[in-house]
From TrEMBL:
Residues 175-390 form the PPM-type phosphatase domain. It comes from Streptomyces agglomeratus. This is Phosphatase. It comes from the Bacteria. The keyword Nucleotide-binding does not apply. GO terms for molecular function: phosphatase activity. Transmembrane segments: none annotated. The keyword Isomerase does not apply. Pfam families: SpoIIE. Keywords: Hydrolase.
Length: 397
């Protein structure tokens, strides 16, 4: 086995950057074989519903999937976001399962089969860094190839869902001040629900939109809403003015016949102060000191319902240790078989039960709880959930 120092990572990352978009996996295999005597390398990507991990293979065929959660080592590595070293039946060999995560966005797992002496703690750390490098290059490669997007699909997306997924910033983000996790269902047929976020050195902006209607019409409406909000946000204006401009764009196109219920939050990263604009049905819940409560906001008109609506901001405060959950109407307004709203009691109980889970797993748990409450995976309405764990800005040294 080659006995290369840790600086092999720099050369490996350079080789990954130079690889053609469709050759990332074959390049990774060659690099790990040369440096670590790896016998096999598999890249498993999380499907859109975050239920299974699917191997990247020659399309349209794919290899056997593994559960994204449960007892499988790769699933444990994905859900726990930690390396898992599996002892195999082959003498002297192990398989290291490394999370492929980019700035908090969980993409999948890199599984490397290699000789056991290479699985010590320092080598596992090197493999974890290598897996992160693969994730960075894969996101860049997606601009030029459909290979990795197709590998995530258990089945065909509807056209509306295709449009919605292309709008999303990702399904997670992490920095010093906070961690974000989000989930959408039905993943392969989502229509009008959407979430978006953007960060600067001083602020985080989150929006959750729930476009009226179904299918293509809802997706077109949400596409207009999200891009109108982005256009306004990038001009540097206040959240209230962002809502006003987006409202004008939506009304100008639909004349009030269609509208987009939207919650807009802008966080000051240094103080935790929030400017909130509640323009419709998404609801905000807060878990603080093991107590879950709905944050009451001043309801204003959905974007595009009336011509030249005016919006204003409502101040809020988030404290270190708070967990915020934003749920679209398809979540809090869902009905059980006996006609009770999910948001009345069950949603709060579900949020409380996620206290020890990560933000990513919390968002998914809320949707799982909704599915159980509804009694079927065939949800009648789109469901979007965003979870934010707030730590606040670290004190200056």
């Amino acid at each position: 086995m080659s006995n290369q120092p840790s600086h092999w990572l720099g050369a490996a990352e350079s080789a990954l950057r130079a690889a053609p978009p469709t050759s990332l996996l074959s390049t990774a295999r060659s690099l790990l074989a040369d440096y670590l005597d790896a016998r096999s390398v598999t890249l498993l990507l999380a499907d859109y519903g975050l239920t299974v991990l699917q191997p990247v293979t020659r399309l349209p065929h794919t290899g056997e999937t593994v559960p994204a959660r449960g007892d499988h080592p790769a699933g444990r590595a994905f859900s726990a976001q930690a390396a898992v070293v599996e002892v195999t039946s082959e003498p002297g060999m192990v398989t290291a399962h490394l999370p492929v995560t980019v700035r908090g966005d969980r993409l999948g797992v890199l599984s490397v089969h290699l000789p056991e002496p290479s699985a010590g703690a320092p080598r596992v750390l090197e493999l974890a860094a290598f897996a992160t490098a693969v994730g960075h290059e894969m996101l860049t490669a997606e601009r030029d190839t459909d290979l990795y997007l197709q590998a995530r699909r258990r089945k065909r997306l509807t056209l509306a869902a295709e449009m919605q997924w292309q709008l999303l910033p990702g399904r997670g983000f992490m920095c010093d001040e906070y961690t974000l996790g989000a989930h959408l269902e039905p993943a392969y047929a989502i229509g009008g629900d959407n979430f978006d976020w953007s960060t600067t050195e001083d602020h985080l902006t989150i929006t959750v939109s729930d476009g009226s209607g179904h299918g293509i019409q809802a997706a077109l409406l949400t596409n207009l809403t999200v891009n109108a909000l982005r256009n306004a946000r990038r001009s540097g204006i206040s959240p209230a003015d962002q809502a006003c401009l987006a409202d004008q764009a939506v009304y100008g196109e639909y004349g009030g016949s269609r509208y987009s219920a939207t919650l807009l939050l802008r966080f000051d990263l240094s103080t935790g102060r929030i400017q909130a604009v509640d323009a419709g049905s998404p609801q905000l819940y807060r878990l603080r000191d093991d107590i879950v409560e709905r944050v009451e906001l001043e309801a204003q008109m959905p974007l595009g319902m009336f011509e030249e609506s005016e919006y204003h901001e409502q101040p809020l405060q988030v404290e270190p240790g708070d967990r915020l959950i934003i749920a679209s109407s398809g979540v809090h307004g869902a009905l059980s078989a006996d006609g009770k709203f999910f948001g009345e009691i069950a949603l709060r109980e579900t949020i409380a039960a996620t206290r020890s889970s990560s933000a990513h797993e919390a968002a998914r748990a809320v949707v799982d709880g909704l599915i159980q409450y509804h009694g079927s995976h065939d949800l009648p309405h789109d469901a979007a959930v965003v979870c934010l764990d707030w730590r606040g800005r670290p004190a200056a040294p």
